Amino acid sequence: MRSALFVPADSDRKLAKGPEAGADALLLDLEDAVALARKPLAREMALEFLRARQPGWPGLIVRVNAWDTGLTLADLAVVVAGAPAAIMLPKCNSAEDVRRLDWAIAALEAREGLPVGRIGILPIASETAQALFAFGSYAGSSARLTGLTWGGEDLAAAVGARANKAPDGQFDDLFRMARALCIAGAAAAGVPAIDTVFVNFRDEAGLRAEAVEARRMGFAGKAAIHPAQVGPINEAFTPSAEETAWARKVLDAFAQAPDAGVVTIDGKMVDKPHLIQARRVLGAGAGAAGGAASG
Questions:
Q1: CA-to-CA separations, 51 to 18, 27, 84, 295, in angstroms, rounded
Q2: Are 102 and 67 in contact (CB under 8 A)?
Q3: pLDDT at 292
C-alpha cells in the first residue's frame, strides 16, 4: 500500500470522488473529520459505501474513534457488517488495545456471518505519550495486524508541543523518534510501516521530499489528506526502472548460486542483506502494478 487517502465518511461528495483519486486505499474517517453530532450518520454512510464497492476500487479501511471516546464499539457494530479491509485504530497505546479490538471484531464477524479473521487492524501507534514506549509490543499481538502507522498532530497535543516541525520543515526530535520507532516496531511485527500525513496539501515539493525520505527510511507507503497528494506519494513509493533492474539482477545472481553468501554483480560484492532489499523492491513494484486489494 503506497498511498492511503483519508475521506470523511459523512461527505457524499468526497466519498463519491474517493475511488477516482488513484490511492491504493481509502481511509473512511469516523474520527477527527466528523463532528460528534454527525457520527451516527457517518457510520451509516460508511456502511453504505462499503456495501456499494465495485471491482477495481481501492482497499477500504475505516478509521473508528479511539477507545477512550466510548464510541469505538458503536462504530464497529455498524461498519463491520460492510467487511472493510481493515479497521484503523487511532490513539492506540499498545498491543493490548489491538487485542481488545481483535476480540470485538471477531464477535461482530461471527454475528455477520463473515469469516473470522477477514478484517485487518492498522493501529496509529504514536498519538499518546504512553504509546511511544510500546512500539515493540505489537509483534505477535494479533494475526489481524496489517501494518503500523504513526501520527504527529495528536502527539504534539498530548505532550504540549506548539508544533511537531521546526521552521525548516523537519520534524523535531520527539517526532523523529516516533517516526523511527514506527519503522522498527513494524519490522519487529513483520508488517509494513506507513508514514503519517503531510498536512500542507498545497506544498507539493515538501510532500515529495518527505515521501522520498520516508521510503528511504523504510516506510512502505504514506497517508494523504487530499487527492492531489496521491500522485506524488505513489510516484515516490514506486520503484524506478533502474531499481527494478538491479533487484532482478540480484535475484538472478543468487538463483544461479543458491549456496553462496556473496555474489558479484557489475564488479561489486552483493550479500544477503542486498537480496532482502531486492525482494522488497520487486514486491513493492508488484504492489504498485496491482494496487491494493479491494476489500
A1: 15, 15, 9, 10
A2: no
A3: 43
List the alpha helices (DSSP H) in the chain: 12-17, 39-51, 72-79, 95-112, 153-159, 173-189, 204-217, 230-237, 241-256, 272-290
pTM: 0.88
Whether the per-residue pLDDT at 137 is higher than 80: the answer is: yes
Q: Which domains does the chain have, with CATH numbers?
A: 3-237 (3.20.20.60), 241-282 (no CATH)
* Rounded-to-integer distance, Cα 201 and Cα 175, Å: 20
**Packing angle of the helix pair 39-51, 72-79 (nearest 10 deg):** 30
Of 178, 170, 255, residue with least CA distance to 213: 170
261: exposed, middle or buried (Cβ count in 10 Å: 0-12, 13-18, 19+): exposed
Q: Report in angstroms the alpha-carbon separations of 158 from 124, 129, 131, 182.
A: 14, 6, 11, 18
pLDDT > 50? residue 148: yes
pLDDT (mean) for 225-254: 87
- With a CB cutoff of 8 Å and minimum separation 6, the contacts of 1 are 24, 25, 59, 147, 192, 194, 220, 221, 287, 292
Given phi > 0 = left and psi -120 to 50 = alpha, else beta, which region is 280? alpha
Which residue do the cell numbers 544477503 mark?
272
Rg over CA atoms, the chain: 20
